[in-house]
Amino acid sequence: MSAFSFDEILKAQENNTTQAPAETIIATDGVELSVRIYRPLKEKPAAALLFYHGGGAHSLAGYQHIGRGLSDEYNMVVYMPDLRGHGVSGGARGDSPSSEQIFQDVSSALEYISEHEVSLSKDKIFLGGHSSGGGLIVNYATWSKRISVAGYILVAPELGYLSKTARPGRIDFAKVNLFAFILNGILGILGHNKAVKFTYPDSMLKDDDGMVGYNTVNMANAITPTSPTDQFRQIDRPVGLWVGSDDELFVAETVADYAKSVEGVGTRGVVVPGKNHLGILVDVHQFIGPWIARNRNM
Question: Hey, what CATH topology would domain 7-169+218-295 get?
Answer without folding.
Answer: Rossmann fold (3.40.50)
